[in-house]
């Protein structure tokens, strides 16, 4: 694939987890990376790490749910770099709540970041991409919601499914402007957020994945790398699943058969 040298990429939620993995991959592929995160201190730490790897990177503190703040931040990046080539709308929250536990505050918080935040970022980026006649936008959704369900995550699932509906229609609207909009759908990924349950639980999660291990944030980053490449110009309005085959088994019996093959 063509190098990303000279390209400017914004990664929201880029200070940790999947966002950090995306930022690392795009930066190592040559892009100037803007790590946008609500946690400014973490964003600065990640930026220092990236610079230590030779990546051109900078951090901005950003609450994606705040439309005015997003507009100011994106306009500032465009003014400084002269362009915005890539927008990775990755920032997200995932507080667990069973159906009967969902309240207005929690619902608004999840949709505010996961859906409205993504919309804010796409709108702001597209305003700069359209005049340039080029842009690559990738939303980080999930297999949970668009493709599967999981107990305790209904509000999260709803937000991730909503992102896909927005992405597909937005992709049509900007298709004649040289802009593509796609989404990556991660499965079980080994991130800092996933470490809370403990190593035993992580091993159980890995056993549920046909490849036998949990993906790294960079595995999602490489999926994004394809979608933001100039060569992916004919791919728009689609989803790319990065799940190690997690969705493939029709039952747990299949996983037991896979384990037996390893003996």
TrEMBL record:
Q: Which gene encodes it?
A: ucpA_2
Q: Which PANTHER family match?
A: 3-OXOACYL-[ACYL-CARRIER-PROTEIN] REDUCTASE, CHLOROPLASTIC, SHORT-CHAIN DEHYDROGENASES/REDUCTASES FAMILY MEMBER
| Record family assignment | Belongs to the short-chain dehydrogenases/reductases (SDR) family.
What is the protein's given name? Oxidoreductase UcpA
Q: Which InterPro entries match?
A: KR_dom (IPR057326), NAD(P)-bd_dom_sf (IPR036291), Sc_DH/Rdtase_CS (IPR020904), SDR_fam (IPR002347)
Pfam families reported for this sequence: adh_short_C2 (PF13561)
Q: For this protein, what is any one GO molecular function term?
A: oxidoreductase activity, acting on the CH-OH group of donors, NAD or NADP as acceptor
Give the originating organism.
Capillimicrobium parvum
Biological process (GO) annotations held by this record are:
fatty acid elongation
Return the EC number: 1.-.-.-
Query: Where does the Ketoreductase domain start and stop, copy by copy?
Result: 7-192
- The EC class name is oxidoreductase
Keywords from the UniProt entry: Oxidoreductase
- Superkingdom of this entry's organism? Bacteria
What high-level taxonomic lineage is stated for the organism?
A: Bacteria, Bacillati, Actinomycetota, Thermoleophilia, Solirubrobacterales
Which SUPFAM superfamilies does this chain map to?
NAD(P)-binding Rossmann-fold domains (SSF51735)
Keyword set includes S-adenosyl-L-methionine: no
């Amino acid at each position: 694939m063509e190098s990303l040298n000279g390209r400017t990429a914004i990664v929201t939620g880029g200070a940790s987890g999947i966002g950090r993995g995306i930022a690392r991959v795009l930066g190592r592929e040559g892009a100037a990376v803007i790590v946008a995160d609500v946690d400014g201190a973490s964003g600065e730490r990640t930026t220092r790490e990236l610079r230590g790897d030779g990546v051109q990177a900078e951090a901005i503190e950003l609450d994606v749910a705040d439309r005015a703040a997003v507009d100011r931040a994106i306009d500032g990046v465009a003014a400084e770099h002269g362009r915005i080539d890539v927008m990775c709308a990755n920032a997200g929250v995932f507080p667990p709540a069973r159906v009967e536990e969902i309240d207005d505050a929690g619902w608004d918080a999840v949709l505010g970041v996961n859906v409205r935040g993504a919309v804010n970022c796409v709108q702001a980026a597209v305003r700069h991409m359209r005049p340039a006649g080029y842009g690559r936008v990738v939303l980080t959704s999930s297999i949970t919601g668009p493709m599967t369900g999981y107990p305790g995550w209904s509000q999260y699932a709803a937000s991730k499914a909503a992102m896909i509906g927005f992405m597909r229609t937005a992709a049509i609207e900007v298709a004649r402007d040289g802009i593509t909009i796609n989404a990556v759908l991660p499965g079980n990924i080994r991130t800092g957020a996933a470490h809370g349950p403990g190593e035993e639980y992580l091993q159980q999660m890995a056993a549920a994945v046909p490849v036998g291990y949990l993906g790294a944030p960079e595995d999602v980053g490489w999926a994004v790398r394809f979608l933001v490449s100039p060569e992916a110009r004919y791919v728009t309005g689609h989803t790319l699943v990065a799940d190690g085959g997690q969705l493939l088994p029709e039952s747990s019996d299949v996983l037991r058969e896979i384990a037996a093959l390893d003996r």
